[in-house]
């Protein structure tokens, strides 16, 4: 996929069982634009139809930023970019439902919605330049319940709160300690490590692997929430998305200045 902004999503077949899915948006630090997310979604659909057992997903190795997260320019026209039907949520569901294993290959810093992209993958291989920062609070954007559950199932609650309340980076060493990263290696062996892991999975019975993955997805989703609680959460998110603070957060980001939030 190509555009004037050089946004691309490329599928490289390693062999008949493994594919490398590479996304790139170099002029905007690999931001997850709607265009890029749509291309990722289409590529995952195509790979699933070809019954590729293992997909390695990531941007090019060696960049300082794996992905800057949502394309902030698009948020000016979308007050809730992480709602159910939006491009990012569509891709996250596609990864979680993919009938095979999706391995995130991470080199460089990961920001905002891109952290959720990594968390939605089945395994994570990272180098020591990797870091993970959940930044929605910087612009006043409230995260979704489904998104928080992905973190809730994978991180200690106090680490989760630290990430979402402070927007500070979780470095690669701490990420490995808390189980977010499966393999932490030097950059020069990052791709080889991911391929070794992929080959180890690809030689196993694909139907058995897919069945286990789907069972685990269902078990992770078994989070009964009363209707009243869901309505309360929806109202809190609506208020935050429509607030003056959200507009101030976007303006401050665009103007590269600290935001002046006042709780309205």
UniProtKB/TrEMBL annotation:
Entry-linked Gene3D superfamilies: 2-enoyl-CoA Hydratase, Chain A, domain 1, Lyase 2-enoyl-coa Hydratase, Chain A, domain 2
Spell out the SUPFAM superfamilies in the cross-references: ClpP/crotonase (SSF52096)
Pfam families found in the cross-reference section: ECH_1
Entry GO MF terms: catalytic activity
Q: Which InterPro entries match?
A: ClpP/crotonase-like_dom_sf, Enoyl-CoA_hyd/isom_CS, Enoyl-CoA_hydra/iso, Enoyl-CoA_hydra_C, Enoyl-CoA_Hydratase/Isomerase
Q: Which family, according to UniProt?
A: Belongs to the enoyl-CoA hydratase/isomerase family.
The name this protein goes by in its record = Methylmalonyl-CoA decarboxylase
